[in-house]
């Protein structure tokens, strides 16, 4: 780096003290640094300036969109319910009542939990009684089997009676006009 610089080849450079030579080398180093920095900055400038323009345009379009959405929402709320503000105030007053009702419900649920615990004890006692009921149900099942047979017999008898009633109705209708007077008294 220093070997290529023409200042290091000059006759005045050879006559300088070591401190002065160090200052010349520092000057050469800083000059090279700033030249390189300037080159890199020009590269960055080619990227940064367009990016700043794009970000600015995006920011302005974002502001524009948010402004329009806010305005549209304001118009929408006015069209949906013009009395929204009073309704919201009414709703906030009802929230206090809701809080009180929830507190009452909490107290009632506490009582309910105590009663459910009591019911569990009663259910345990009922389990013992259900064992005894199971035996009784077995005996009832046998009796129901017998009743089913009897009901089937009754069902057959009812069918027979229905058929015979139908025959009687037909026979009475066939008796003709003299029986019209009697037909008004009979239910079939």
Task: Walk me through the structure.
- This protein has 188 residues and is mainly alpha-helical.
- It folds into two domains: 1-80; 109-188, no CATH class.
- The chain has four helices and no strands.
- 0% of the residues are buried.
- The model has no long low-confidence stretch (mean pLDDT 83).
Topology, element by element:
Blueprint lengths: L10 H4 L3 H63 L3 H91 L5 H4 L5
Short description:
The protein is mainly α and 188 residues long. It has helices spanning 11-14, 18-80, 84-174, 180-183.
Q: Which features characterize this protein?
A:
mainly alpha, 188 residues
Number of contiguous helices: 4
Classify the beta-strand content into a percent band. under 5%
Query: What would you report as the Rg, rounded to the nearest angstrom?
Result: 54 Å
Helicity, as a percent range: over 70%
Low-pLDDT runs:
none
The structural domain count equals: 2
Largest sheet: none
């Amino acid at each position: 780096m220093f070997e290529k610089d023409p200042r290091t080849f000059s006759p005045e450079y050879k006559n300088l003290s070591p401190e002065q030579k160090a200052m010349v080398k520092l000057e050469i180093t800083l000059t090279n640094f700033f030249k390189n920095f300037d080159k890199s900055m020009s590269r960055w400038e080619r990227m940064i300036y367009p990016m700043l323009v794009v970000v600015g345009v995006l920011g302005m379009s974002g502001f524009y969109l948010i402004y329009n959405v806010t305005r549209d929402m304001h118009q929408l709320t006015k069209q949906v319910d013009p009395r929204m503000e009073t309704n919201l105030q009414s709703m906030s007053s009802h929230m206090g009542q809701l809080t009180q009702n929830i507190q009452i419900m909490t107290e009632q649920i506490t009582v309910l939990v105590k009663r459910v615990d009591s019911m569990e004890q009663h259910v345990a006692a009922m389990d013992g009684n259900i064992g005894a009921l199971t035996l009784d149900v077995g005996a009832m099942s046998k009796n129901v089997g017998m009743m089913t047979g009897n009901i089937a017999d009754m069902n057959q008898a009812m069918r027979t009676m229905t058929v015979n009633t139908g025959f009687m109705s037909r026979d009475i209708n066939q008796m003709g006009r003299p029986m019209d007077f009697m037909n008004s008294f009979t239910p079939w």
